[in-house]
Automatic annotation (TrEMBL):
It comes from the Bacteria. GO terms for biological process: negative regulation of DNA-templated transcription. Residues 5-65 form the HTH tetR-type domain. Pfam families: TetR_C_7, TetR_N. SUPFAM superfamilies: Homeodomain-like, Tetracyclin repressor-like, C-terminal domain. Coiled coil: none annotated. This is TetR/AcrR family transcriptional regulator. Residues 28-47 bind DNA. The keyword Transcription regulation applies. InterPro entries: DNA-bd_HTH_TetR-type_CS, Homeodomain-like_sf, HTH-type_TetR-like_transc_reg, HTH_TetR, Tet_transcr_reg_TetR-rel_C_sf, TetR_C_Proteobacteria.
Length: 202
């Protein structure tokens, strides 16, 4: 890694910390530069201004957090047990969205969405990556006759609403809520079972 890349990585890490702790309005470029141990002009040379820094680092952090889910999604259509594969994928997705850092960023994005509608687009694009993986899987399962899913995109919305979105919504507005042992597993598996029942071949 070059010196320039190291400085950019340090700025990114410092900016995430400042924005999470203080919000957009409360975070300053001076504090970010001090935390990253670089000069203020160095921050500007890498990111231009505070707004661009905010959008770049938050968007990148969210995208990076979902990276490991891709291989799980790609295995769903060919899995010998689609139910188990769906539970595995959705369970891992729930784990990601409930991570404290991701939940903190979600609340931050919600609070800043009027000022930065682009952040909503970034969040939607991150989720769309997983959505599209499920769309492909359901289309493949429909084609081979394993499920009856003529509208896979609608089916994805229904399934994620019962699983990922349900868990995420609870923790978004109740940060201290602790899921009981087995509660998340039950939420995901029951959602998958409802989905598979609804889309079973007649």
């Amino acid at each position: 890694m070059s010196a320039s890349e190291r400085k950019r990585a340090a700025i990114t890490e410092a900016a995430i910390g400042e924005f999470v702790e203080r919000g957009y309005a409360g975070a300053s470029v001076d504090a970010i530069a001090a935390r990253a141990r670089v000069s203020k002009p160095t921050v500007y040379s890498h990111f231009g201004n505070k707004e661009r820094l905010f959008l770049t680092v938050i968007g990148g952090y969210l995208r990076d957090g979902y990276t490991d889910l891709g291989p799980l999604a790609d295995r769903i259509a060919e899995a010998p047990d689609p139910r188990a594969a769906l539970i595995d994928f959705l369970g891992s997705w729930v784990e990601v969205v409930l991570r404290e850092d991701v939940m903190t960023l979600r609340r931050l994005v919600i609070g800043e969405i009027d000022r930065f509608p682009q952040l909503g687009q970034v969040w939607a694009q991150v989720n769309a990556t997983n959505d599209e993986a499920l769309v492909r899987a359901f289309a493949a399962l429909h084609k081979k006759g394993a499920l009856d899913v003529p509208r896979p995109r609608q089916a994805v919305r229904q399934l994620t609403a019962m699983t990922v979105d349900a868990a995420q919504l609870i923790r978004t507005f109740r940060p201290a809520y602790e899921f009981d042992e087995g509660e998340l597993e039950e939420l995901v598996s029951s959602g998958v079972d409802v989905f598979l029942t609804a889309y079973a071949r007649g």
